[in-house]
Amino acid sequence: AQSVSQHNHHVILSEAASLELGCNYSYGGTVNLFWYVQYPGQHLQLLLKYFSGDPLVKGIKGFEAEFIKSKFSFNLRKPSVQWSDTAEYFCAVNRNSGYSTLTFGKGTMLLVSP
Amino acid sequence: DVKVTQSSRYLVKRTGEKVFLECVQDMDHENMFWYRQDPGLGLRLIYFSYDVKMKEKGDIPEGYSVSREKKERFSLILESASTNQTSMYLCASSKPTGDGPGELFFGEGSRLTVL
Protein backbone atom coordinates (compact mmCIF):
# COMPACT_ATOMS: atom_id res chain seq x y z
CA ALA A 1 0.00 0.00 0.00
CA GLN A 2 1.16 3.49 -0.70
CA SER A 3 2.10 5.77 2.19
CA VAL A 4 2.89 9.44 2.58
CA SER A 5 5.37 10.83 5.07
CA GLN A 6 5.50 14.44 6.17
CA HIS A 7 8.71 15.21 7.97
CA ASN A 8 7.56 17.80 10.47
CA HIS A 9 4.45 17.73 12.60
CA HIS A 10 4.85 21.30 13.83
CA VAL A 11 6.74 24.22 12.34
CA ILE A 12 7.02 27.68 13.89
CA LEU A 13 8.29 30.58 11.79
CA SER A 14 8.43 34.32 11.99
CA GLU A 15 6.84 36.41 9.27
CA ALA A 16 9.03 36.81 6.18
CA ALA A 17 10.93 33.60 6.88
CA SER A 18 11.19 31.03 4.12
CA LEU A 19 9.23 27.81 4.33
CA GLU A 20 9.89 24.29 3.15
CA LEU A 21 7.67 21.40 4.19
CA GLY A 22 8.87 17.93 3.31
CA CYS A 23 6.75 15.19 1.78
CA ASN A 24 7.84 11.73 0.64
CA TYR A 25 5.71 8.93 -0.72
CA SER A 26 6.33 5.23 -1.04
CA TYR A 27 4.69 4.18 -4.30
CA GLY A 28 7.10 3.44 -7.13
CA GLY A 29 4.82 3.90 -10.11
CA THR A 30 3.30 6.97 -11.70
CA VAL A 31 1.54 9.19 -9.19
CA ASN A 32 -0.49 12.36 -8.87
CA LEU A 33 0.54 14.65 -6.04
CA PHE A 34 -1.33 17.27 -4.05
CA TRP A 35 -0.91 19.73 -1.22
CA TYR A 36 -4.04 20.68 0.69
CA VAL A 37 -4.33 23.38 3.34
CA GLN A 38 -6.74 23.76 6.24
CA TYR A 39 -6.93 27.25 7.73
CA PRO A 40 -8.27 27.49 11.29
CA GLY A 41 -12.00 26.81 11.32
CA GLN A 42 -12.18 26.25 7.57
CA HIS A 43 -12.53 23.26 5.29
CA LEU A 44 -9.64 21.62 3.50
CA GLN A 45 -8.83 23.21 0.17
CA LEU A 46 -6.42 22.52 -2.63
CA LEU A 47 -3.16 24.47 -2.59
CA LEU A 48 -1.56 22.94 -5.66
CA LYS A 49 -1.31 19.70 -7.62
CA TYR A 50 1.02 17.83 -9.93
CA PHE A 51 -0.22 15.43 -12.58
CA SER A 52 2.48 15.61 -15.24
CA GLY A 53 4.75 18.02 -17.07
CA ASP A 54 6.91 20.66 -15.38
CA PRO A 55 7.93 19.25 -11.99
CA LEU A 56 7.89 22.72 -10.45
CA VAL A 57 4.29 23.52 -9.71
CA LYS A 58 2.93 26.88 -8.65
CA GLY A 59 -0.16 27.15 -6.49
CA ILE A 60 -2.24 29.76 -4.79
CA LYS A 61 -0.93 32.41 -2.38
CA GLY A 62 2.67 32.20 -3.58
CA PHE A 63 3.21 28.53 -2.75
CA GLU A 64 5.11 26.18 -5.01
CA ALA A 65 6.19 22.55 -4.89
CA GLU A 66 8.80 20.53 -6.69
CA PHE A 67 8.33 16.92 -7.71
CA ILE A 68 11.61 15.01 -7.61
CA LYS A 69 10.85 11.55 -8.92
CA SER A 70 14.21 10.04 -7.98
CA LYS A 71 13.67 11.06 -4.36
CA PHE A 72 9.94 10.27 -4.24
CA SER A 73 9.47 13.77 -2.89
CA PHE A 74 7.06 16.65 -3.35
CA ASN A 75 8.22 19.41 -1.02
CA LEU A 76 6.20 22.56 -0.50
CA ARG A 77 7.94 25.94 -0.47
CA LYS A 78 7.20 29.60 0.02
CA PRO A 79 9.93 32.27 -0.02
CA SER A 80 8.35 34.54 2.57
CA VAL A 81 5.52 33.45 4.87
CA GLN A 82 2.81 35.65 6.30
CA TRP A 83 0.83 35.41 9.50
CA SER A 84 -2.18 34.39 7.39
CA ASP A 85 -0.33 31.23 6.29
CA THR A 86 -0.89 29.77 9.75
CA ALA A 87 -2.68 26.52 8.94
CA GLU A 88 -2.32 22.77 8.73
CA TYR A 89 -0.81 21.46 5.51
CA PHE A 90 -1.41 17.99 4.10
CA CYS A 91 0.47 16.23 1.35
CA ALA A 92 -1.52 13.63 -0.60
CA VAL A 93 -0.79 11.08 -3.30
CA ASN A 94 -2.74 8.80 -5.55
CA ARG A 95 -1.57 6.15 -7.95
CA ASN A 96 -2.10 7.04 -11.58
CA SER A 97 -5.04 4.72 -12.03
CA GLY A 98 -8.71 5.26 -12.71
CA TYR A 99 -9.96 3.80 -9.44
CA SER A 100 -7.23 4.81 -7.06
CA THR A 101 -7.85 6.86 -3.94
CA LEU A 102 -6.02 9.68 -2.28
CA THR A 103 -3.67 8.84 0.59
CA PHE A 104 -2.86 11.71 2.94
CA GLY A 105 0.12 12.40 5.13
CA LYS A 106 -0.33 13.13 8.82
CA GLY A 107 -0.15 16.86 8.30
CA THR A 108 2.17 19.68 9.33
CA MET A 109 0.87 22.43 11.56
CA LEU A 110 2.48 25.74 10.60
CA LEU A 111 2.38 28.63 13.04
CA VAL A 112 3.60 31.98 11.76
CA SER A 113 4.26 34.60 14.41
CA PRO A 114 3.82 38.26 13.46
CA ASP B 1 -19.30 27.77 -6.50
CA VAL B 2 -18.54 24.21 -5.54
CA LYS B 3 -20.28 23.05 -2.41
CA VAL B 4 -20.15 20.00 -0.20
CA THR B 5 -22.54 20.24 2.70
CA GLN B 6 -22.40 18.11 5.80
CA SER B 7 -25.63 18.10 7.72
CA SER B 8 -24.26 18.42 11.25
CA ARG B 9 -21.23 20.41 12.36
CA TYR B 10 -21.29 19.09 15.91
CA LEU B 11 -22.88 15.97 17.39
CA VAL B 12 -22.76 14.41 20.83
CA LYS B 13 -23.92 10.82 21.10
CA ARG B 14 -23.85 8.08 23.68
CA THR B 15 -22.06 4.76 23.36
CA GLY B 16 -24.20 2.27 21.49
CA GLU B 17 -26.32 4.83 19.66
CA LYS B 18 -26.77 4.68 15.91
CA VAL B 19 -25.34 7.75 14.18
CA PHE B 20 -26.05 9.09 10.70
CA LEU B 21 -23.77 11.61 9.06
CA GLU B 22 -25.14 13.09 5.87
CA CYS B 23 -23.24 14.68 3.02
CA VAL B 24 -24.64 16.38 -0.08
CA GLN B 25 -22.74 17.80 -3.04
CA ASP B 26 -24.10 20.04 -5.75
CA MET B 27 -21.44 19.52 -8.38
CA ASP B 28 -22.77 16.36 -10.05
CA HIS B 29 -19.59 14.53 -8.99
CA GLU B 30 -19.43 10.79 -9.42
CA ASN B 31 -16.92 10.22 -6.61
CA MET B 32 -17.66 10.68 -2.94
CA PHE B 33 -15.51 9.91 0.08
CA TRP B 34 -15.66 9.76 3.86
CA TYR B 35 -12.49 10.44 5.83
CA ARG B 36 -11.89 10.83 9.52
CA GLN B 37 -9.36 13.36 10.76
CA ASP B 38 -7.55 12.88 14.04
CA PRO B 39 -4.69 14.96 15.48
CA GLY B 40 -1.34 13.48 14.55
CA LEU B 41 -2.93 10.88 12.27
CA GLY B 42 -3.99 13.04 9.35
CA LEU B 43 -6.90 11.93 7.17
CA ARG B 44 -7.79 8.28 6.92
CA LEU B 45 -10.21 6.93 4.33
CA ILE B 46 -13.24 5.11 5.72
CA TYR B 47 -15.37 4.40 2.64
CA PHE B 48 -15.76 5.74 -0.85
CA SER B 49 -18.15 5.49 -3.74
CA TYR B 50 -17.61 5.90 -7.46
CA ASP B 51 -21.25 5.74 -8.44
CA VAL B 52 -24.78 5.49 -7.12
CA LYS B 53 -25.34 2.35 -5.04
CA MET B 54 -21.67 1.53 -5.28
CA LYS B 55 -19.40 1.50 -2.23
CA GLU B 56 -15.89 0.41 -1.47
CA LYS B 57 -14.03 0.01 1.81
CA GLY B 58 -11.21 2.36 2.53
CA ASP B 59 -8.39 1.88 5.01
CA ILE B 60 -10.45 1.90 8.24
CA PRO B 61 -14.00 0.66 7.50
CA GLU B 62 -14.54 -1.30 10.71
CA GLY B 63 -17.51 -0.03 12.70
CA TYR B 64 -18.87 2.01 9.78
CA SER B 65 -21.18 1.55 6.84
CA VAL B 66 -22.32 3.85 4.05
CA SER B 67 -25.24 4.44 1.76
CA ARG B 68 -25.42 6.10 -1.60
CA GLU B 69 -28.96 5.99 -2.98
CA LYS B 70 -28.63 9.21 -4.97
CA LYS B 71 -25.68 10.66 -6.81
CA GLU B 72 -25.53 13.80 -4.73
CA ARG B 73 -25.85 12.19 -1.31
CA PHE B 74 -23.44 9.95 0.61
CA SER B 75 -24.24 8.92 4.16
CA LEU B 76 -21.94 7.51 6.80
CA ILE B 77 -23.51 5.27 9.41
CA LEU B 78 -22.14 4.22 12.77
CA GLU B 79 -24.31 1.26 13.73
CA SER B 80 -23.27 1.33 17.38
CA ALA B 81 -21.12 4.30 18.29
CA SER B 82 -18.09 3.77 20.48
CA THR B 83 -15.82 6.25 22.23
CA ASN B 84 -12.95 5.51 19.83
CA GLN B 85 -15.11 6.89 17.04
CA THR B 86 -14.95 10.35 18.56
CA SER B 87 -13.41 12.31 15.70
CA MET B 88 -13.82 14.87 12.95
CA TYR B 89 -15.51 13.33 9.91
CA LEU B 90 -14.88 14.85 6.50
CA CYS B 91 -16.89 14.25 3.38
CA ALA B 92 -15.39 14.96 -0.03
CA SER B 93 -16.40 14.66 -3.65
CA SER B 94 -14.60 14.75 -6.96
CA LYS B 95 -15.04 14.34 -10.66
CA PRO B 96 -12.96 11.38 -11.78
CA THR B 97 -10.12 11.85 -14.23
CA GLY B 98 -8.70 9.08 -16.34
CA ASP B 99 -5.81 8.63 -13.95
CA GLY B 100 -7.24 9.08 -10.50
CA PRO B 101 -9.91 10.61 -8.32
CA GLY B 102 -9.05 14.19 -9.32
CA GLU B 103 -9.22 17.18 -7.05
CA LEU B 104 -11.23 16.52 -3.90
CA PHE B 105 -13.67 19.14 -2.63
CA PHE B 106 -14.29 18.90 1.08
CA GLY B 107 -17.15 19.77 3.38
CA GLU B 108 -16.60 21.65 6.60
CA GLY B 109 -16.61 18.52 8.69
CA SER B 110 -18.77 16.94 11.37
CA ARG B 111 -17.24 16.77 14.82
CA LEU B 112 -18.63 13.75 16.62
CA THR B 113 -18.19 13.16 20.32
CA VAL B 114 -19.22 9.78 21.72
CA LEU B 115 -19.68 9.68 25.48
Describe the structure.
The complex is a heterodimer of chains A (114) and B (115). In chain A, the strands form 3 sheets. In chain A, strands 2, 5, 6, 10, 11 and 12 form a 6-stranded mixed beta sheet that branches. Chain A contains no helices and 12 strands. Chain A starts with a strand and ends with a strand. Chain A is mostly beta strands. Helices cover 0% and strands 52% of the residues of chain A. With 115 residues, chain B is mainly β. In chain B, 0% of the residues lie in helices and 50% in strands. Chain B is built from no helices and 12 strands. In chain B, the strands form 3 sheets. In chain B, strands 2, 5, 6, 7, 10, 11 and 12 form a 7-stranded mixed beta sheet that branches. A 3-stranded antiparallel beta sheet of chain B has the order 3-9-8, with no helix packed on it. A two-stranded antiparallel ribbon of chain B has the order 1-4. The A-B interface holds A 1, 6, 9, 30, 32, 34, 36, 42-46, 49, 51, 90, 92, 94-107 and B 4, 33, 35, 40-45, 48, 50, 58-59, 90, 92, 96-101, 103-104, 106-109.
The share of residues in helices of chain B is under 10%
Number of strands of chain A: 12
> DSSP helix count of chain B?
0
Overall mean pLDDT of chain B stands at 93
Q: Give the helix tally of chain A.
A: 0
Sketch the major β-sheet of chain A: 6 strands, mixed
Average pLDDT of chain A works out at 92
Taking all Cα atoms into account, the compactness measure Rg of chain B is 13 Å
Indicate the topology.
The complex is a heterodimer of chains A (114) and B (115).
Chain A: E1 4-6, E2 10-14, E3 19-21, E4 23-25, E5 31-38, E6 45-50, E7 56-58, E8 64-68, E9 73-78, E10 87-95, E11 103-104, E12 108-113
Parallel strand pairs in A: 2-12
Antiparallel strand pairs in A: 1-4, 3-9, 5-6, 5-10, 7-8, 8-9, 10-11, 10-12
Chain B: E1 4-6, E2 10-13, E3 19-21, E4 23-25, E5 31-38, E6 42-49, E7 56-57, E8 65-70, E9 73-78, E10 87-94, E11 105-106, E12 110-114
